[in-house]
Amino acid sequence: MKDLLGQALLDYQNGNHTEDIITSTNISDEDTLPIPYLFREYNDMPKLEQEALKLAKGKVLDVGCGAGGHSLYLQNKGYNVKAIDISEGAISVCKNRGLKQAKVSSILDETEHFDTILLLMNGTGIFQKLKYVTQYLSHLKTLLNPNGQILIDSSDIQYMYEDEDGGLWIDTNSNYYGELDYYLSYKGKNETPLTWLYLDFNTLKTACLTVGLHCESIKEGDHFDYLAKLTISE
Ligand SMILES: C[S@@+](CC[C@H](N)C(=O)[O-])C[C@H]1O[C@@H](n2cnc3c(N)ncnc32)[C@H](O)[C@@H]1O
């Protein structure tokens, strides 16, 4: 990983924001990811993220924290928050912004226990592929204190496979339709391609059942997106 995302976040923080990140996937054309969006304040966050922050309780882990906006909001409210990200640049930015506990780490290496685990801005993306979902969920479950919760958002992207007549062109012999090859470039450099998973609610719920997690839909967004709360099944 070249950590182009981290470089873009650092550039923005240092006043060198001259261009945004360009993204594309195997099923969609180029799009822009505006770097200021990654520094959004509470009032500019989607309703699903605001709802997740309202539901936060106890000791919090923010997984894939990026520039740390969610963590900073909760830290300012007095919560004990730990933020992790695999991007060194992102964690530098979080520390510069005043986050007390920010660490370069992958979720699978985390061992502490928490009352709330946040995975936001398509949190299921971190699972990469449908076949890894139960592995990630099982691990996340081991990090929960009794009565703890995982708050995660994602989208059902079936609509991206609709043609103009409303027909679907999903190849049923291929992988799960929410598994996308994701390409990112910044200032003329290409990041190592990654796989990013969008998971529909029912598939997430089924995966949760197999690892002993209860999965509840908390809120639906405007565009096939949702916020789910996962708790340990009784
Ligand atoms: C879409 S960004 C979301 C950033 C932030 N949560 C937000 O809402 O602005 C996803 C983040 O997850 C991080 N990430 C990807 N895989 C990860 C992993 N296995 N463990 C921790 N962080 C990871 C990426 O480096 C990136 O910063």
Automatic annotation (TrEMBL):
Gene3D superfamilies reported in the protein's UniProt record: Vaccinia Virus protein VP39
Pfam families for the chain: Methyltransf_23
InterPro entries reported in the protein's UniProt record: SAM-dependent_MTases_sf
A single GO molecular function term of this UniProt record: methyltransferase activity
GO biological-process terms attached to the record: methylation
Protein name: Class I SAM-dependent methyltransferase
Native organism: Formosa sediminum
Domain of life, per lineage: Bacteria
Keyword terms, alphabetized: Methyltransferase, Transferase
Xref: SUPFAM superfamilies: S-adenosyl-L-methionine-dependent methyltransferases (SSF53335)
